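seq as requested:
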Amino acid sequence: MDEFVIQTDRLTKRYKNVVAVDDLSMEIRRGRVYGLLGPNGSGKTTTMGLLLGLQTPTSGTFSLFGYNHGHRELLRRVGALVENSSFYPYLSGYQNLRYFQKVSGRGSEEELESLVDRVGLSGRGHDLFRTYSYGMKQRLGIALALLGDPDLVFLDEPTNGLDPEGMIEMRELIKSLGDGSRTVLFSSHLLHEVEQVCDSVTIISKGRLIAQGEVSQLIATAGSEQIRIKTTDNSKALQLLSTPGWVEDISRDEDSLLITAPIERSAELTAALANAEVYVAEMVPIRKSLEEYFLEVTRRGNEDLQ
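struct tokens:
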């Protein structure tokens, strides 16, 4: 089994004068939940369409499970919810799944009831599709993507239309899908949601790769962070810490000090204060969120592309 389930090499898609995906090279490892992030119009859905064979690249190549994408048999190992799935309104949710199961030859009839329950449609699986809310339709779309227990699942904005409780349930479902050997590529514009669900992310802007890696590592390498400290003498600490060149900024915040400096210099900070007989009573790093990191790297990336 290949370590990478998705690899792209300078993948490009042009529509006349519009470049939707631009020289994109990325790698997605097996057995994780990956977030595909980018502003609206960044090329997320187009990238998924290319990987699913729904669109033809203008140039560049990609492979699934270590094989060239031209192997049609690979699609049996892939499930997808991309934009809105099309179902028959006069059939029930269960009947729709049964129909697509027969057409695709994926999975078995025995798994359908458990799929309906797994996506949160228990008790509504035999109701007509036309009676479903938008959120219920999304759930059925995910059930369709899971037919046949695929090794790779694409989910494009899967929580759209769900109420807060439904979003929490769906996040837990998506996290569970990435257990073991299955890989999930999950796109969402809700960055706090991605931070809770995904192990790693790939960030694109204007169709180009901006950053990729584990969420925690990306945030940790995003540069200086803020540290909140309380000391035995905040006034003296404020004066002392205004001197070192690696302290970018320091300010009062009620009974604390907010310091902008690399978190790895914390030991030097406390030592400098202790030498002056000022002692740290509390120190808390204020780490960047994925949203802050995303805004920073996409802004910087767009400046580089200009």
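The chain is about 35% helix and 30% strand.
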